[in-house]
């Protein structure tokens, strides 16, 4: 194995591990929600505000840090993000105030937003254009590992020793790992054989968005973010309340979702390759699968196993879309030196919408039912499909 290949494997493993671990420090809120509700007697709307504070600050941070990530050292930038997230999780474990929790979780969102865009930048420099489809699939699977950590390990911790340790232990792990990242990572290859040659011209973000036809993709990022993060945060509670499960049982069942998400990510990469790398058409097919599954979820009464399978299919479809949006597309603009900016913009759209959805989900469930949430998922999926179809017509007219 030549030295460059050795470094590529090392860089990929470090990036994969990092992104999996940050789920350890953000999904813990999802698992802890039932215990927080039981301990403090807060409404779902109030609990949703904690999640909303994370997603809005994460989304705004993506916009800011995606831009900065193209100009500053990714190694240092990501180290700061991991370390600060770890320290905030530790502080959260000692908090008993609703408003302090909102502030801390918002700060957690901002510092975690320093990771994805700069990480895509690192990967775009270490891997060639020909490798980006497989790379986007591979790095997207880190979320599967993250969900297993977040829902599996944290679920066990919260059940056995309490919700506070569900934040304290991830905080310690992230703080320690930040130093491992700093000592082990490199921003780009040392030699002159850079994996991706960047164009010398300083292209603007608006130029790249127009050149790659991404303006109609932005609404799709909003739509998939609503469904993806609603399932991520409210999934365990949805199963508990609709199927009358305990926290322990719901956590065990919900662990199927990361494996379904892996199938969705893999299917997205497979379809994209078979369709000769047409990411928008790939997303259209995946969203159609999601629309059918969501409709079945709404109109057909199902037992726990079938409910979980259909919920997993919905989640898998949006994860396939997410891997195209936030991995493949940003990697494809590496030659314009705008990978971090594009990743940051699309992530901002995804998580800004998610922030609204998290609070709205709590409000809808408090005042109506879980069926109202499913109707919202159907509507936003239809909107995403419409935008993709309009994009197809627009490109056809102008090509």
From TrEMBL:
Q: Where is the Major facilitator superfamily (MFS) profile domain?
A: 11-396
The residue ranges crossing the membrane are: 7-25, 45-64, 76-95, 101-123, 135-157, 163-184, 213-233, 253-271, 283-302, 308-329, 341-362, 374-394
Chief localization: membrane
Keyword Transferase: yes or no?
no
Q: Does the keyword Ribosomal protein apply?
A: no
Q: Which Pfam families does this entry report, sorted A to Z?
A: MFS_1
What InterPro entries does the annotation carry?
MFS (IPR011701), MFS_dom (IPR020846), MFS_trans_sf (IPR036259), OPA_Antiporter (IPR051337), Sugar_P_transporter (IPR000849)
The subcellular location is: Cell membrane
Q: Which residues form a coiled coil?
A: none
Which GO terms fall under molecular function for this chain's record?
A: glucose 6-phosphate:phosphate antiporter activity
GO cellular component, alphabetical, reads:
plasma membrane
Q: How far does the signal peptide extend, from start to end residue?
A: none
Q: How does it sit in the membrane?
A: Multi-pass membrane protein
Which Gene Ontology BP annotations are present? phosphate ion transmembrane transport
Listed A to Z, the keywords are: Membrane, Transmembrane, Transmembrane helix, Transport
| Cited PANTHER family | GLUCOSE-6-PHOSPHATE EXCHANGER SLC37A4, PROTEIN UHPC, PUTATIVE-RELATED
Listed name of the protein? Major facilitator superfamily (MFS) profile domain-containing protein
Species annotation: Anaeromicrobium sediminis
Record lineage: Bacteria, Bacillati, Bacillota, Clostridia, Peptostreptococcales
